[in-house]
Amino acid sequence: MWLSFALGACRGPGPDEAQQPDDTAAQPDASSAEAEAKPLVLRLEPAGEPSPAQELVESASGKQGAVASAEANASRIGVEIMQAGGNAIDAAVAVGFALSVTQPSAGNIGGGGFMVIRFPDGKATAVDYREEAPGAATADMYLDESGELTNKSTVGALAAGIPGDVAGFWYAHQKWGTLDWKQVVEPAVALARDGWTLDEEHAKDLGYAAKRMTDKGFPDSAKTFLKPDGSNFAVGEVWTQPELAATLQRIADEGRDGFYAGPFAAHMAAQVQELGGIWTAEDLANYDPVERQPLIFDYRGRQIIAMPPPSAGGVVLRQILAASEALDMGKKPWHSVDQVHHYVEILRRTYADRNLLLGDPDFIEIPMETLLDVSYIDERVADIDPKKATPSSEVGAGVEVKESEQTTHFSVVDGSGLAVANTYTLNGGFGAKVVVPGTGVILNNEMDDFTAKVGSPNMFGLIQGPQNAIAPGKRMLSSMTPTIVVEDGKLRAVVGSPGGPTITTTVAQIILQLIDYDRSLLDAVRELRIHHQWMPDAIWYEEGLDPKLMKGLENKGHELKTRSWRIGHANCIEVGPSTGAYTAVADVTRDGGSASAY
User: Fold this and answer.
1) Per the domain annotation, does 151 fall within a domain?
2) 101, 177, 216, 458: which could join 173 in a potential S-S bond, CB 3.0 to 4.6 Å?
3) Is 61 labelled a binding residue?
């Protein structure tokens, strides 16, 4: 029916919200702009049956394929794609689109991300489909007349970068997928069209989204998450998204061009402009993912494959692990005062480098060779005092240069050993709090990940430098850290997490436990987490850690802040060294997730 390092890179053919700082006032005239939106004519296939409620599975094992993601329907779909003859790339694309339906706070197709891939022959690559600044973007676009920051980098259409999800998935599928494109997209179409049964977490999320969008001045966007009578959805009710279903159907039928070209792209650009944004149809048409050489380095005899800039994740992870090896951290009991103190001091130094030196390598010079060099990393941690904390105000970047946490991660492995680590995002929960009329597409607020004003924190408290300043077509620095671990030439683990700046520390803590402490992936994912990011100068920790540990850290001069919400949400896969079986582990103790395998 019809509805009214100078790293080698090549461009392809051709995005706890409740805890983020208040993004305050609504954008001017937002609701009136929404009211004037014209409907977009899109096609929908006949309806089927809604997906029933899915059981959350913390761990699942098999030898043919495995998926760990933030939502049960998505994990199920990924395994079904592999059972139908698809490979891990096909499954990853299907999972990515499914999460755009079932994890709207983070996985909607209005965002962007990164994909790290390891092939059965041991070769690896990385796909950068991060959002980029529109062509009309300027370095001072979020400052008022007094030079102070406004909230426009977090709320409203001006906060949105050009999304990369669809282009990234299309690129990966066209280059390495085996099934027909429509076959991997249509499960998501069906989920959106026919609906799926809400559990407690997702029913709560929809109510939260509707309230936030209304409070920020976007009541028409809020209707996407409410029943026709304006009431909230309850547990056990079915939520359908006909506009998103039609958009996904167009993408299934037309591929990349169904989103980035033709009448749909023109409609998207026009609506974003009506809502105060600066997208153009040309911005969408010109967007391309970038295939990059991944960062590959050794840690204690294992090979780590990670994402290069504009993700900061791989660089920071390299520095954390190399520093941990230099300080022989594996000999310090896990979560002892001595271990956590040294770990935090490592983070303090690595995040100073991250925040001040990194950005989009296609726009700036990054001293990659130095940052990744073991001698440099050893020098950075040589001044750690084992008896007391170093104030972050005394720690700067080690190199002089000339110049939300609402993310979601999934891991996929197929029977051949092809592995995919994928992290993508809208940035804050439900992005910019705007749904593009007639499309079901939620706008990201990734522009806040740029340095809008040097010395001022973004929504995650990160204080960044001019390396990450806004420029047209530039990609904003990210913390996303999709990572693959190889041991003795064989796949060992696929790791990743959402969580804004806590992503890399979450991934590091899991890898340290797997390698240094010989823990199972399940135990490593369940373990309580700690985070430090240079500024603000405090250790953030999850509730439940030993009070003696907290007291010992305070005695060394650390400021401690508990987090009422969890750090990260790791959905990972490990390979049994002796059995070769894949075990998918979902971080179900931290707001859901589900594992599936066969």
Assistant:
1) yes
2) 177
3) no
At residue 576, what are phi and psi to the nearest 5 degrees? -65, 120
- CATH code: domain of residue 156: 3.60.20.40
Q: What is the pTM of this model?
A: 0.90
Active-site residue flag, 214: no
How wide is the angle at C-alpha 257 spanned by C-alphas 251 and 260, nearest 5°? 100
d(CA 65, CA 582): 7
Strand order in the sheet with 560-563: 530-531, 539-542, 560-563
pLDDT in tens, 206-251: 999 999 999 999 999 999 999 999 999 999 999 999 999 999 999 9
Question: CB-based burial of residue 432 (10 Å sphere; 0-12 exposed, 13-18 middle, 19+ buried)?
Answer: buried
Q: Which of 407, 483, 504, 506 is catalytic?
A: 407
415 carries a ligand binding annotation: no
Q: How many residues does the chain have?
A: 598
Q: Does some domain include residue 64?
A: yes
Which tokens belong to 143?
């400052």
- Per the prediction, the chain carries an average pLDDT of 90
The DSSP code sequence of 249-317 is HHHHHHTTHHHHSHHHHHHHHHHHHHTT----HHHHHH---EEEPPEEEEETTEEEEE--TTBSHHHHH
Question: Would you say 105 is a known binding-site residue?
Answer: no
Structure tokens belonging to residue 21: 């700082």
* Structural domain span for residue 94: 59-195+240-295+398-597
The domain total for the chain is 1
| Residue 176 falls inside a structural domain | yes
